[in-house]
Write a structure and sequence with these properties.
Layout (H helix, E strand, L loop, with lengths): L8 H4 L5 H12 L5 H8 L3 H13 L3 E3 L6 E3 L1 H11 L2 H18 L2 E7 L4 E7 L14 E2 L5 H8 L3 H10 L13 H14 L2 E4 L6 E9 L5 E10 L5 H5 L2 H16 L2
Length: 260
């Protein structure tokens, strides 16, 4: 090899950093990744990539996707992301934005992140009304019948969405829950066009909600911001009237994450 030949990526990535760089690459790509994708992007030999993937999977940082050949974030990598988002400085700024929106809207504001089986509430600002619906931080709710979950589903590629909706029957939690995958696909398509999703007493009888996306620096869905309320005080139509301040708060939260 000529002396002035550029070093390969293999020699550029120190051995003790390769696993971290691989996890960073999986997070950056934002979708289930096959070994061949990582071989190309990282420039490491095929045996090295497979060994790193096996280690990351065994330790819970990655897990196999539905096709059995590609990899996505595992429990430990998702927990790391949530803990990073919950760092004191970032959380203080985030809560200030959420409190401002909650005061303007007058109802409970929630921030949720997607997990493997549903959406997990990362932060919330409660309404001052004595009548409220308690969903504590850490609560996990389904994708198919919540505003936050439907917002996440609406962001997925069609092949991934099909895999999620066809994995198991959609559970009926109330009389309003959509359990037909085709009906849900149609609603998600409409939600993409209008920019928000809704829950019309589909998760819990007597509760309505809407959700909007919080985006990462690559304009991918990072989390959701939602508002919910008891329908006896605030109908779904009234909640939709809160869309503008909710979207403004979500835009500020997106900017906050871009500037970290």
């Amino acid at each position: 090899m000529p002396d002035d030949a550029p070093p390969s990526k293999d020699t550029q990535i120190p051995t003790n950093l390769r696993l971290l760089v691989l996890l960073e690459e999986v997070a950056r790509l934002g979708e289930a990744v096959r070994p061949t994708d990582l071989i190309e992007s990282m420039g490491l030999p095929k045996p090295t990539i497979h060994r790193l993937l096996q280690t990351a999977e065994a330790e819970g940082f990655l897990q196999r996707d539905l096709d059995g050949r590609s990899y996505g974030p595992g429990d430990r990598l998702r927990a790391m992301a949530v803990n990073t988002m919950s760092s004191e400085r970032l959380r203080t700024a985030r809560l200030a934005i959420m409190k401002g929106a909650a005061e303007e809207i007058g109802e409970t504001i929630n921030l949720a992140t997607p997990d493997r089986e549903g959406m997990t509430y990362l932060d919330r600002v409660e309404t001052k009304w004595p009548l409220r619906i308690q969903l504590p931080i850490g609560t996990q709710v389904p994708f198919h019948c919540t505003a936050s979950g439907k917002m996440y589903l609406s962001s997925l590629r069609s092949t991934t969405l099909n895999g999620v909706l066809n994995a198991k029957p959609l559970e009926k939690l109330t009389e309003q829950t959509i359990t037909d995958p085709e009906v849900l696909r149609k609603e998600l398509s409409e939600a993409r066009k209008r920019g928000f999703t809704q829950d019309n007493e589909e998760f819990m009888t007597g509760m309505a909600a809407i959700a909007v996306p919080i985006l990462d620096p690559q304009n991918r869905l990072l989390a959701t911001l939602s508002v919910h309320a008891p329908v006896m005080r605030c109908s779904l139509e009234q909640i939709i009237g809160f869309l503008e301040p909710l979207q403004m708060a979500a835009a500020k939260l997106s900017d906050l994450n871009r500037n970290q």
